[in-house]
Design brief:
It is a single chain. Helices cover 33% and strands 21% of the residues. It is an alpha/beta fold and 248 residues long. The chain has one domain: Aldolase class I (TIM Barrel, Alpha-Beta Barrel). Strands 1, 2, 3, 4, 5, 6, 7, 8, 9 and 10 form a ten-stranded mixed sheet that branches. α7 links the parallel β8 and β9. α3 packs parallel to α4. The protein is globular.
Length: 248
C-alpha cells in the first residue's frame, strides 16, 4: 500500500465527527461475501449508504431512497467516520464494500473514511451507478469502483442514468469495472453500444433477479451470448446463498 496516500487522506481535525447517512452495515457480526462482480466470493464487509439520485423500478434496495414505501427515519441513521472505522477494523476481513443507494452522493465525507480504512490495511470497493465522477482523493491505491450504469430495461430513463462525463472519469481512473444488469439477450446490444461509445472495459454482465430460480433462469438465457462477446459474467452469490436476505 502507498502509505503516503493513506496519510494524505486520513482523518484531519474535525473529520472524526463527520457523519454519513447510513442504511446498514453488515459482515462483522454475521460473516458474508461480496456477491457480485470482480470480487464475487471474497469475504467482505458492507457499508450501505442511504439516498440515491436515481429511481430505478427494478432496484432491490429501495429502502435507501423510496420514501413512498419506506420511512427514512427508520431506514437510515447518521454515523460518524470514527464509528464506521472502528466497526470495520473490528474484523480481520480485508475487503470493505461501500454501496448504496448511491454512495458518491456523500463522497466528501467518504474521503476521510476511506483514508482511515486504507491506513488500517483494508481495501475498498465502491458500488456506484456511474452518474457522479469520483473525487480525485478517492482515486488511489487500494480503491476500486464497480460501476453499474442502468439501462432502460432496468426501469430508468437513460437521459438520467447515463452520464458520459462521469463514465469517462471512471475510465480514466483505470480503477473501474463496468457491471451491467441484464434480463434478456436484447439488453446486450444496448450494453455493447454504451461500451463502444464510452470505451468501457472490462464489461461484466449480471443476470437480473432476486430469487435463485430467476438468477439461474436468466443466467441460462444470457450465458452463450455473453460468452460470444468475450465479456465477463457474474452471478448474484448472495441471492443464491442467502435468498437475498437483507444484511447478508
Amino acid at each position: 500500500m502507498n502509505t503516503s496516500v493513506s496519510v494524505s487522506i486520513g482523518l484531519r481535525a474535525g473529520d472524526a465527527a463527520l457523519r454519513l447517512i447510513v442504511a446498514e452495515c453488515f459482515g462483522v457480526e454475521v460473516p458474508t461475501f461480496q456477491g457480485e462482480g470482480p470480487s464475487c466470493g471474497h469475504p467482505a464487509l458492507f457499508i450501505r449508504l442511504s439516498r440515491c439520485n436515481l429511481t430505478c423500478t427494478k432496484c432491490d434496495t429501495k429502502y435507501t431512497w423510496d420514501w413512498k414505501q419506506f420511512d427514512p427515519r427508520k431506514e437510515s441513521t447518521k454515523r460518524t467516520v470514527e464509528d464506521l472505522v472502528a466497526w470495520a477494523t473490528s474484523s480481520p476481513v480485508e475487503l470493505v464494500v461501500i454501496t448504496g443507494g448511491e454512495p458518491l452522493l456523500q463522497q466528501e465525507r467518504l474521503v476521510p473514511l476511506v483514508g482511515q480504512l486504507l491506513a488500517a490495511g483494508k481495501r475498498v470497493e465502491f458500488e456506484t451507478n456511474g452518474t457522479i465522477a469520483p473525487a480525485s482523493e478517492l482515486v488511489v491505491d487500494g480503491v476500486r469502483f464497480n460501476v453499474s450504469p442502468k439501462i432502460a430495461s432496468f426501469g430508468m430513463n437513460e437521459t438520467k442514468s447515463v452520464e458520459p462525463a462521469a463514465l469517462e472519469a471512471f475510465v480514466a481512473s483505470e480503477r473501474a469495472a463496468f457491471k451491467f444488469v441484464a434480463s434478456a439477450v436484447s439488453d446486450l446490444d444496448r450494453i455493447a453500444e454504451l461500451a463502444d461509445a464510452h470505451r468501457l472495459a472490462p464489461v461484466w454482465v449480471m443476470p437480473e433477479g432476486t430469487t435463485a430460480e430467476a438468477i439461474i433462469a436468466t443466467t441460462r438465457v444470457l450465458a452463450d451470448a455473453v460468452a460470444a462477446r468475450r465479456w465477463h459474467f457474474t452471478t448474484r452469490l448472495h441471492v443464491l446463498a442467502f435468498a437475498d436476505a437483507r444484511g447478508r
